[in-house]
Amino acid sequence: MPFEARDDNVDPDAIGNYYHDDGLLWQTNYAAVEVFDYPHATMHMKIFCQSYWGELHDLTFSSKRGSTKEPEEENAWETKFRQSLARPGTDEAAMMHTPLAAVVRYDTGNPTTHLFYISTGFKIREVVWKNGSQTNDCLGITVCPTSSLAVTKWGAGSQTHFRLYYQSKAGTIEEHCLDCNAGTWTKGATLSGPVSAYDNDSPLRGTSLTFINLSQDKPELRGFFQTAKGSIQEFTYKGTKWSTSPIGIEAAPFRTPLAAITVEKNKRAALYYVDAYNRVNEVRWEGDWEGSERIDGDSVAPGARLAVASLKYIGHDKIHMFSSGLVNVITQRVWTREDGTWGDRPTIVDFEAPVQVEVDPGLDPAVHVRNPIIIRGGRRV
């Protein structure tokens, strides 16, 4: 994929008020969340990914009509802006191919978005967008260099709780907990034993992780991981303890990406993974796990990662899935309840167009965005 050449001998502060972003990183990880602004009855979607030089990017998409009603026309979603985060050479720099996990809470009256990633020192960092401001802090949690990240939540009002999951240096799956009122992360449960050559059910080192909650106001948590023998298993938490069980997927390519989601007010759940033919497979849950089947006939790029988010239009949900296409662009698949199927073909999300972010001289555009400018074909959009 073409991208604008970068001269690392040029001081970015010396080239004026603009910072030039780069092309998509091959095999980048993704995170996706839907964000609702209830006071204004508007919605948008955030997609997080990594570029060629290691920056993280926050792509914001909004409905052209700015309404929670379902857009009726085709291509009703448009790129609002693309913001660069975690620039290389700073304390906030992300490791290459960092895992990404994101969650949104609404306990302040306005949406607060949290993004988690791993730094070049293999520590978890958290970016928070709240009331128009942005912070980036190190949580002080050291992880395995090949660790995945996953986050889920429950609660309403001012009682929101987060659970963050990662793989330790020993290969155990670990949990950290946050009561958003207290604002302090604490160590939670250890969900698995260490990586072991003698235990086929131990976690695969570098396994993908994904977690969901089947309840909005209490922890009915489910998480998914890959074992050392290649099967996919489920962590289940209900009440006071965790348990582990198979879900019927006995073999998948090692380090296959995993992405799970709940829809229809948590009455349904689905797990997605990529098979040996680079096709996305789905396993549905409606009280019990059903068999695995491919969602369409289109391949993702070898080594592509997955992210899913649901948009709650009035009356029903749609699932949006993001991954890398064969020519290294972001592709989107959409599932609708009316048809009960995925769309005919994946569509391309606009990432390639260079984006310039305007800031005051000398300030980091990852923090001090003043007026995002999208450039297409040499012209401002």
UniProtKB/TrEMBL annotation:
Family matches, as InterPro entries: Fungal_lectin
Gene3D superfamilies, per database record: Fucose-specific lectin
UniProt superkingdom: Eukaryota
Family: Belongs to the fungal fucose-specific lectin family.
Name assigned to this protein: Fucose-specific lectin
